[in-house]
Design goal:
By secondary structure, the protein is an alpha+beta fold. It has 2 helices and 8 strands; from the N terminus they run H-E-E-E-E-E-E-E-E-H.
Length: about 160
């Protein structure tokens, strides 16, 4: 093949790639929104973070029988994501609850994800285990820490004294 012919094929391939790359953002802009609830398992009375991306609107809401209706606000100037927070009702029975996210006003795009309410879920705030520790467990933990510190001091002192 001649160099001119190769050059024309290469230019044609580059032009086709450029057209495909220019069309990709248009395709992505019309993709369905995606939503998350974090954590996905929570105890009654616990808090969840709500997030939806891909709405293209500056307003939205999330609704569930576990926490009611929450208005979502933009996370940035482009409104590429909307976020909010909710507290699960204290009297919510254990089970799986749908959380419906809606972009914009009524009739906007919707996405539904699941939230699991379980009494065994980790609590937020102080780590979830503070109120379940007995005084004996705290004492044993303190004794172990003190023993480790004592052993460390003994090893360091032993190394600093020259042997006779």
């Amino acid at each position: 093949m001649s160099p001119t012919r190769n050059r024309h094929r290469l230019i044609g391939l580059a032009a086709a790639t450029l057209v495909a790359a220019a069309a990709a953002p248009v395709t992505l802009a019309h993709a369905a929104p995606s939503a998350t609830v974090s954590p996905i398992a929570v105890a009654p009375g616990g808090r969840v973070a709500l997030n939806i991306t891909g709405c293209g609107t500056k307003t939205g809401r999330a609704t569930s029988r576990a926490f009611g209706d929450v208005q979502l606000t933009p996370g940035n100037l482009e409104a590429s994501n909307l976020f909010g927070g909710a507290t699960v009702y204290n009297n919510t029975p254990n089970g799986s609850y749908p959380v419906t996210f809606e972009c914009g006003g009524a009739g906007g795009q919707q996405v539904t994800v699941s939230l699991n309410v379980t009494s065994g879920a980790a609590r937020g705030g102080l780590g979830g285990s503070v109120d379940s520790m007995s005084q004996g467990e705290v004492a044993v933990g303190g004794a172990l820490v003190a023993a480790a510190l004592g052993a460390g001091v003994w090893v360091i002192r032993r190394r600093t004294h020259p042997s006779a």
